[in-house]
């Protein structure tokens, strides 16, 4: 079973700053199957990044993803007020099919 | 506009059963694999189950295998999750989601249905 560990647990930053969120896997993950979501309080998750670095429809270009193997990163270049939320990474592995989420990183206003 | 609307949540006693529904609109349900994902309030996301386009392939997380059954009615644009032998550990908000084909992701999510298992 692949475990995804996100760090830090909480990140306190100010609007305009750069945010770097980490997702580390216990085993190698296919880059095609590494995904990031954003979730705000009382809302469903929203797809941000798929296939490690591809932005989903309507996601602003201040969001970017990178990484390979066991280390993946979500970067928000210049934080805006609406970016403060919880971010989850997720991976998929087939045979047998398993979808695993990280525990989340809470991005809060400093 | 893609919309997913869950219903059927509620309070159920331990050992009881419940059926969740997810009404889909704004897209052709039969063209997509679908998922159920749950979240204990204040906690993280946990994948529960998925189903292929015609219902012939169904997969489950180990924690629910043998107790939950995913199904779909494409003619009625509805996804289902039958929950049985429920325990307190199944208390969660249950989201249905549309699979983002080929990438192991979920591109659209419903707002969730809350299931509370308690005596």
Tell me about this structure:
The complex is a heterodimer of chains A (110) and B (119). With 110 residues, chain A is an all-beta fold. Chain A has strands at 4-7, 10-13, 19-29, 34-39, 46-50, 54-55, 63-76, 86-93, 98-101, 105-109. Chain A is built from no helices and 10 strands. In chain A, the strands form 2 sheets. In chain A, strands 2, 4, 5, 6, 8, 9 and 10 form a 7-stranded mixed sheet that branches. Chain A is globular, with a radius of gyration of 13 Å. Chain A starts with a strand and ends with a strand. In chain B, the strands form 2 sheets. In chain B, strands 2, 4, 5, 6, 9, 10 and 11 form a 7-stranded mixed sheet that branches. A 4-stranded antiparallel sheet of chain B has the order 1-3-8-7, with no helix packed on it. In chain B, strand 7 and strand 8 (78-83) form a beta hairpin. Chain B is globular, with a radius of gyration of 13 Å. Chain B starts with a strand and ends with a strand.
Write the layout of secondary structure elements.
The complex is a heterodimer of chains A (110) and B (119).
Chain A: E1 4-7, E2 10-13, E3 19-29, E4 34-39, E5 46-50, E6 54-55, E7 63-76, E8 86-93, E9 98-101, E10 105-109
Parallel strand pairs in A: 2-10
Antiparallel strand pairs in A: 1-3, 3-7, 4-5, 4-8, 5-6, 8-9, 8-10
Chain B: E1 3-7, E2 10-12, E3 18-25, E4 34-39, E5 45-51, E6 58-60, E7 68-73, E8 78-83, E9 92-100, E10 105-109, E11 113-117
């Amino acid at each position: 079973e692949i475990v995804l560990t996100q760090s830090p647990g909480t990140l306190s930053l100010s609007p305009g700053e750069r945010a770097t969120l980490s997702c580390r896997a216990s085993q190698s993950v296919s880059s095609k199957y590494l995904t990031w979501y954003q979730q705000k309080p009382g809302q469903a998750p929203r797809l941000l990044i798929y296939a490690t670095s591809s932005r989903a429809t309507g996601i602003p270009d201040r969001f970017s993803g990178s990484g390979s193997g066991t280390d993946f990163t979500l970067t928000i270049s210049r934080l805006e007020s609406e970016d403060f939320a919880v971010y989850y990474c997720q991976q998929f592995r087939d045979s047998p099919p398993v979808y695993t989420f990280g525990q989340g990183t809470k991005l809060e206003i400093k | 506009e893609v919309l997913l609307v869950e219903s059927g949540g509620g309070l159920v006693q331990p050992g009881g059963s419940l059926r969740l529904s997810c009404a889909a609109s704004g897209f052709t349900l039969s063209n997509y694999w679908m998922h159920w994902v749950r979240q204990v309030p204040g906690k993280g996301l946990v994948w529960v189950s998925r189903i292929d386009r015609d219902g012939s392939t169904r997969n489950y997380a180990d924690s629910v295998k043998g107790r939950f059954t995913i199904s779909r009615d494409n003619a009625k644009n509805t996804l289902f999750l039958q929950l049985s032998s429920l325990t307190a550990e199944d208390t969660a908000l249950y989201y249905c989601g549309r699979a983002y084909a080929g990438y192991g992701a979920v591109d659209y999510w419903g707002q969730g249905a809350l299931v509370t298992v308690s005596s």
